[in-house]
């Protein structure tokens, strides 16, 4: 008899309701802000009061946030740590600044875009801190191989 492996048995940790809710809220926020670039009806007026050009820079913010969020969330579920996410974050920050300052491919050089990418990369680390403390539980199905 072949025993079927449970799809969650490879995860050392599983997210709690707090952990998964925070993940989806951040993901949806980044996605919603990204959609606001093209659709004025989806724009948040308060952000435009803060920075009238917010939606011209939100691509870097949203893409950086989503990449960092997915990578870190996955790493935490598999290992309980986010050490490699620091390296991914540094790579994202470097790529944002290098691309915005030195590579004018389909892009105008704009340091503000790089700062938005920096913010999008750093925000998930606040979430990761709380996710690690309050948002994961040991997976009872996990078996060391």
Structure commentary:
The chain is mainly alpha-helical and 145 residues long. The chain has one domain. It contains five helices and two strands, in the order E-H-H-H-H-H-E. It has helices at residues 17-35, 45-50, 54-79, 83-102, 111-134; strands spanning 13-15, 136-138. A two-stranded antiparallel ribbon has the order 1-2. The radius of gyration is 18 Å and the shape is globular. The relative contact order is 0.20. The model has no long low-confidence stretch (mean pLDDT 89).
| Strand portion | under 5%
Report, as a whole number of angstroms, the end-to-end distance.
20 Å
Radius of gyration of CA atoms, rounded to a whole number: 18 Å
Q: Any idea what the shape is?
A: globular
Largest sheet: 2 strands, antiparallel
| Structural category | mainly alpha
Strand order of the largest sheet: 1-2
Q: How many E-type strands?
A: 2
The domain tally reads 1
- Following the backbone from N to C, one meets helices and strands in this order, namely EHHHHHE
- Number of helical segments? 5
Write down the overall mean pLDDT: 89
Q: Which regions contain 5 or more consecutive residues with pLDDT less than 50? A: none
Helix content: 55-70%
Summarize the structure.
This protein has 145 residues and is mainly alpha-helical. It has helices at residues 17-35, 45-50, 54-79, 83-102, 111-134, and strands at residues 13-15, 136-138. The two termini are 20 Å apart.
